[in-house]
Write a structure and sequence with these properties.
This protein is mostly helical. It is built from 16 helices and 3 strands. A 3-stranded antiparallel β-sheet has the order 1-3-2. Helix 5 crosses helix 9 and helix 9 runs antiparallel to helix 14.
Length: 327
């Protein structure tokens, strides 16, 4: 040992407890968990390096004070994760927990706000939904089935535009609407009904599902601003391209007969489909969903075949300024 080197001072567990303000049992627990190192004296007592043990316990105490669990703290002390990474992970976990609590609070308030006659019905609706994230996953799985066999990477934008994210701090109305969306997609017959609306009659004859998906998507992109401006369904280029896309996908050509075939077994007027898109619209505001665009094309198709029994889509009235912003 040189003159510039001094032996590290060793202290007992009692001394360490007094200097750090921690209980002896707490320090012993940290030793047992591998958070704090100790050595044994000749008499078998735990002894600690005063400086390093104090520094480590101070860090543990601070990390515990900001809410980190022992697992995360152990990772930091063992060098498996930086303090910044541990803090970021805990922050992300808390975000999820806060959203879950907000959903539960809104659900309880929704049940409380229901009239006595409808309280049992609302309780059943909300009890079937664990949390908002679960509902969102259900909606995505529903559309995966509808749009199959289109590769999922090709429909990311479609999902973003048409599947609402759960609100971080939902209102009573929002939590009820989101839960009702989950109930709709849980209906076994809803999948068949929406597939029939999207792929139309004789889907087994479609040669290129992805090509049809792309072509119809291009049509809908042009229909959206028409719906936003309140233009009533009409014959024209948008409808012709829609019909031609379906005809080409089946190896046929646009004709009055083929247009009639596209209306065979049409489910566009199904009340569940209308309810689904009405609920979705509560989250998107002025955004025109593909559901409303599809119904515009459906009404235009029905009129082109003189199907007077087909109801026209209901248009929302909006102030002129908001119409311009939605295009």
């Amino acid at each position: 040992m040189t003159d510039n080197t001094q032996a590290s001072a060793l202290v007992s567990i009692g001394e360490l407890a007094r200097s750090t303000g921690l209980a002896v049992r707490t320090i012993r627990f940290y030793c047992d968990e591998g958070i704090l190192e100790s050595r044994r004296s000749a008499g078998g007592h735990r002894m600690f390096d005063a400086d390093s043990a104090t520094e480590r316990l101070l860090l543990v105490r601070r990390l515990r004070a900001v809410g980190l669990g022992l697992g995360s703290i152990t990772d930091v002390l063992h060098g498996e994760r930086s303090i910044a990474e541990a803090i970021a992970a805990e922050s992300a976990r808390l975000d999820i927990e806060v959203r879950s609590l907000a959903w539960r609070r809104a659900s309880l308030r929704a049940i409380e706000a229901a009239t006595p006659a409808r309280r049992a019905e609302r309780l059943a609706l909300l009890a079937a939904v664990q949390d908002a994230g679960t509902v969102h996953d259900c909606l995505i799985r529903f559309w995966r089935r509808i749009l199959a066999p289109i590769p999922w990477s090709d429909v990311d934008k479609w999902v973003y535009w048409n599947v609402p994210e759960p609100p971080a701090d939902p209102s009573v109305d929002a939590v009820v609407a989101y839960a009702e969306l989950a109930a709709l997609v849980a209906d076994p017959d809803m999948n068949r009904t929406v597939r029939q609306q999207y792929w139309r009659n004789r889907p087994e004859l479609i040669r290129d599902c992805r090509g049809l998906y792309v072509d119809v998507g291009d049509v809908m992109a042009d229909v959206v601003p028409l719906v936003a401006e309140g233009v009533r369904p009409r014959a024209g280029g948008e409808l012709d391209r829609f019909v031609n896309a379906h005809a080409s996908a089946r190896g046929e050509r646009d004709s009055p007969r083929f247009r009639e075939q596209l209306l065979i077994g049409a489910t566009d007027a199904d009340h569940r489909i209308h309810r689904y898109w009405a609920l979705t619209g509560q989250f998107f505001g002025t955004r025109v969903t593909v559901g409303r665009a599809h119904h515009w094309v459906y009404a235009a198709l029905a009129r082109s075949t003189d199907r007077a029994d087909v109801p026209a889509p209901r248009q929302r009235s909006r102030p002129r300024a908001r119409q311009r912003r939605s295009t």
